[in-house]
């Protein structure tokens, strides 16, 4: 299974659009694909026509230590999706331990089977969720719009990716 994070610390660079289109293309190529929306704003979830799930059935569940209910994996025509919840924003403040960057990796290692590719769509910020995605990933895709600020954001994202690769 390939785990890929789509990340840029700058907003408006096409992270979510890239996640959707790359996931659809991989699916059309015959791969079984899971997308996990880790952006508290849930733009990918909304773009796929889904309503806001209950927090206990969203990607928030990846970050719950003792949970009896796993997140809902929604089957969409092109790929499967674990939707986002705005509750990610409030929970983020509680994830402050150094080991809190390992949740997504542990979840993907222990709870996900049968997928050829998992894509993690992140918010436009360095958060515990984007760090989780980077730690869990085999590859990182940094979309960049051909403008100055997105290029600066990509450079900053690359520095974060390098730090995660070297330290975590």
Any descriptors?
single chain, 168 residues, alpha/beta, six-stranded mixed beta sheet, 14% strand, globular
Explain what this protein looks like in three dimensions.
With 168 residues, the protein is of the alpha/beta class. The chain has helices at residues 15-28, 43-47, 87-92, 103-111, 128-136, 148-167, and strands spanning 2-6, 33-37, 74-75, 80-82, 117-121, 139-141. A six-stranded mixed sheet has the order 3-4-2-5-1-6, sandwiched between helices. It is globular and about 40 Å long. The protein starts with a strand and ends with a helix.
Biggest sheet features: 6 strands, mixed
Q: What proportion of the residues form beta strands (DSSP E)?
A: 5-15%
Question: Any idea what the shape is?
Answer: globular
- The radius of gyration is 15 Å
Strands in their spatial order, largest beta sheet: 3-4-2-5-1-6
Unreliable segments of 5+ consecutive residues? none
Would you count the extended β strands for me? 6
- What sequence of helices (H) and strands (E) makes up the elements? EHEHEEHHEHEH
- Look at the structure and give the mean pLDDT: 90
Going by helix content, strand content and strand pairing, the class is alpha/beta
Distance between the termini: 20 Å
Work out the helix count.
6
Helical residues, percent: 25-40%
